[in-house]
């Protein structure tokens, strides 16, 4: 009976050990983590896991990929491991310079940029590798200077420029091109609608 108990206990421990090893493989991302040191900054990033592949690259998208110790980007294709996951660029003083996420070689979600002193310079939203959605730009003190939105990589809609704490300059953009201010005739359509008729 005692021998059977020991064998039973040993088989349970062996089964748990095998299961523990099988769970380590998918969670072990160290094989996909890379570092590159340049003269003025350093980068930490991840590349695509071996079980993830991009079936058909978009011919209009710029893909970021890693090969021979360098990060490169190519429109419509790639020839290495796609950048995938958290990307962090640091100044030499270890202060963050830029940080965001890649999804199979394309920037995705909010990206942040900082100056060397650690003040926020910009927050830009990306979708499928292009700037899409709201963005904010800041001065060297970290105060908001511009606020607007991108559509497919181009400024679109109203752009607010904060000149002083009490004054804002508004500009209107369409597909990245600033639009001329509307004349009074176009701006006053609502006033004309409710204007009293002259007797």
Beta-strand percentage range: over 45%
Mean pLDDT: 83
What does the largest sheet look like? Answer: 12 strands, antiparallel
Tell how many strands the DSSP assignment holds. Answer: 15
Contiguous uncertain segments of 5+ residues: 12-28
Radius of gyration: 27 Å
Q: How many separate helices?
A: 3
Structural class: alpha+beta
Describe it for me?
About 9% of the residues have low confidence. The protein is flat, with a radius of gyration of 27 Å. The chain is built from three helices and 15 strands. 18% of the residues lie in helices and 47% in strands. Strands 1, 2, 6, 7, 8, 9, 10, 11, 12, 13, 14 and 15 form a twelve-stranded antiparallel sheet that branches. The chain has a three-stranded antiparallel sheet with strand order 4-3-5, with no helix packed on it. With 199 residues, the chain is of the alpha+beta class. InterPro entries: MORN_2. Pfam families: MORN_2 (PF07661).
